[in-house]
Amino acid sequence: SDVIIIQNGNDFRIEKYASYQGTDYTVSDKYTLDGKECVNEGFQGSQKKSTAVWDDNRQILTVKSKLPMQDGSEVSITEVYKMKGNDLEIKSFASSSYGDLDETMVYEKQ
What we know:
The chain is mainly β. It has strands at residues 2-8, 11-20, 23-32, 38-41, 47-54, 60-68, 74-84, 87-96, 99-108. It has no helices and nine strands. A hairpin with a 5-residue loop joins strand 4 (38-41) and strand 5 (47-54). The chain is globular. The chain starts with a strand and ends with a strand.
């Protein structure tokens, strides 16, 4: 899978390309870096509400999102983006009524 990150001033876009069970898919989310709520498309046309905030040193970006589920519950997702040398580390934490997910992905800078 690939990740493309584009920052232009206060605007920040993350494009994720992956395959799942033989199907290719793309997720493209746009955020502002001022901590204001941003709305992107979630699962099956739902609305994913997110905030993106830098740490004090502008080294770590934390994106917190909430997505509605079909059963009326909500999934909370926290993604932490951090450069480590030439690698981008993305730590993801998701919590919902179905349980918790903790995942770390490392991408080599191209």
